[in-house]
Amino acid sequence: MLAFTYEDSRQVAEKLAEIVKSSSAAAIEKNGRFTIALSGGSLPKILAQGLAQVQGVDFAKWEVFFADERVVPLDHEDSTFHACQEAFFSKVGLKREQIHTLSEELLKENEKDVQNYADEYEGQLVHTFANASTIKVPSFDLIVLGCGPDGHTCSLFPNHELLKEDVAWVAPITDSPKPPKERITLTLPVVTHAHQIVFVATGAAKKTVIKEILEDATSTLPSALITQAAKDRTTWLMDNAASENLSRATLADHF
């Protein structure tokens, strides 16, 4: 695990963009495409801010998924797709067919069973990663995640039953502690199987939980479980406010 801290969110955005560009180029050179899963919240704006200054990213070969999504219409203000479309996708020319969203058909039918949305989204994963031989878990080139003040990430919340899910790739949640309650989320096995994982955390509200996640080896917070399971493939990018409580030994020198 590598943990870096920067003066402000602008510098965090720049470093995130460097990682995304490098990961994208390597994946496209090797496989002809780049598979990435994104969280919502403030991440789309941070990603857009950084990539706006970067040249040479082959966005035409990206396939984009969401680490989690709220079961709302795609143009709803709570939709992760909507947030990403407004802040990022529309600014870099990503085409609609490159972006894997909730089933528009199910949304139009006003489907109420969240399991059906999860199953359909898992089907999109199966289709995208089907060329991998005897695939048991999809392996994204990069997953970019946020971290809540409670240590949640994706729609995986502390002490929730979904943390035990080890079969499904995509799971429904109908009792999210944060509204809206109905969501779908990638499960822990999928997230931890990615080639590279980047957590982005900014703001003083997260400094206490980040210390637990990165310095308490017994932590069972979702962000900690991912960091522990994929420690050699996980990078944390923080501003100084979020990393304030970390010991110097935890932080790596800037790259």
UniProtKB/TrEMBL annotation:
Residues 8-236 form the Glucosamine/galactosamine-6-phosphate isomerase domain. One of its GO terms (molecular function) is 6-phosphogluconolactonase activity. It comes from the Eukaryota. Pathway: Carbohydrate degradation; pentose phosphate pathway; D-ribulose 5-phosphate from D-glucose 6-phosphate (oxidative stage): step 2/3. Keywords: Hydrolase. The keyword Aminoacyl-tRNA synthetase does not apply. GO terms for biological process: carbohydrate metabolic process; pentose-phosphate shunt, oxidative branch. It holds the Pfam family Glucosamine_iso. It is an enzyme of class 3 (hydrolase). One of its GO terms (cellular component) is cytosol. SUPFAM superfamilies: NagB/RpiA/CoA transferase-like. The keyword Hydrolase applies. Its EC number is 3.1.1.31. Hydrolysis of 6-phosphogluconolactone to 6-phosphogluconate. PANTHER family: 6-PHOSPHOGLUCONOLACTONASE. Belongs to the glucosamine/galactosamine-6-phosphate isomerase family. 6-phosphogluconolactonase subfamily. This is 6-phosphogluconolactonase. It comes from Schizosaccharomyces japonicus (strain yFS275 / FY16936). The gene is pgl1.
